[in-house]
Design a protein that fits this description.
The protein is an alpha+beta fold and 290 residues long. 17% of the residues lie in helices and 22% in strands. It has one domain: Deoxyribonuclease I, Chain A (4-Layer Sandwich), CATH 3.60.10. The strands form three sheets. A seven-stranded mixed sheet has the order 1-10-11-2-3-5-4, sandwiched between helices. A two-stranded antiparallel ribbon has the order 6-9. A two-stranded antiparallel ribbon has the order 7-8. The chain starts with 27 loop residues before the first strand and ends with a strand.
């Protein structure tokens, strides 16, 4: 059964819809009082694109023709083209389509990409970056020479963690020292730019969902900035100033995440024609390096 194309209507001022697009375009929300400077600015996207190897009608009963790769891939690449992230972290990329479709298309869009899949799986992960903005300076060396190196990198961890804001995996990343218990308090960036859609089912000011299916809905995708731990009790980020001092990065903008009301009157699971091409929503952040 093919599900009807959903008509999207929302009074949310952050939502923009353009008839020419095959998906619901989302606005970038600026962080209040971010005060951007002259440092290099980078944008990072994480996107679980739904491996075609995992698709079946029983799992996605209302998605209709939106499940077909020929239809979905067109919209996925349209999103990537329009949002144009500098760094792109992809999950659930089919091995069967990487060399034939993904790699050539990403190169056409100006990206250098690396793909990895374990031998047991039919899908893997990829990291792509704009070669006009970055140069890969680290390569696998075929040598037995010993190098002693001391480095201090900007580090970003992004992807589908299959972990909600109150789960152990999430808490072990967002607090130090790790003390696993449920529903601890923390301030996150998304709550500052879209409070009406943050902290609704968690005390972390995180958005409500990034994965939306007929049988399950929730937040499991994240973009994290990794900073050094000074061995103090650090389970709460008090302000964006603290974040900036700890990470040497300034958070500037985040891609708006939809609310439940934005998902249409029927609340069909994704993917859906005219809405989103994966069961996950892409996430994106813009940062300034200090």
């Amino acid at each position: 059964m093919d599900a009807p194309i959903l008509e999207h209507a929302s009074n949310d001022k952050h939502v923009t819809t353009e008839p020419a697009k095959d998906y619901i375009s989302r606005a970038f929300l600026s962080v209040p009082n971010a005060n951007p400077g002259n440092g290099p600015k980078i944008s990072v996207m994480t996107y679980n694109t739904l491996a075609q190897a995992l698709v079946n009608r029983k799992r996605y009963p209302t998605s209709g023709t939106a499940l077909r790769w020929a239809n979905r891939s067109k919209v996925i690449f349209e999103e990537i083209t329009d949002y144009s992230p500098d760094i792109l972290c992809l999950q659930e990329v089919d091995t069967s389509t990487w060399d034939r479709e993904w790699a050539p298309k990403l190169k056409q869009l100006g990206y250098q990409a690396t793909f990895h899949a374990s031998r047991q799986k039919k899908h893997g992960i990829a990291i792509a970056y704009k070669f006009s903005k970055f140069t890969c300076s680290l390569h696998m060396l075929n040598t037995r020479t010993l190098f002693g190196v001391n480095l201090h990198f900007y580090t970003i961890l992004a992807g589908d963690f299959n972990s909600q804001p109150f789960d152990a995996a999430y808490l072990s990343i967002t607090e130090k020292p790790s003390k696993i218990k449920s529903h601890l308090f923390i301030l996150c960036g998304y709550g500052l730019i879209h409070p009406e859609n943050s902290g609704l089912d968690n005390k972390r000011n995180e958005p409500l969902f990034s994965n939306w299916t007929d049988t399950w809905k929730g937040l499991i995708d994240y973009i994290c900035v990794v900073s050094d731990w000074d061995n103090t009790n650090n389970r709460k980020v008090d302000s964006l100033d603290d974040f900036t001092r700890a990470s040497s990065m300034r958070l500037l903008r985040l891609l708006k995440m939809p609310s439940t009301a934005d998902m249409g009157p029927e609340q069909f699971g994704l993917p859906q024609p005219g809405m989103y091409p994966s069961d996950h929503l892409c996430m994106m952040a813009e940062l300034e390096l200090l």
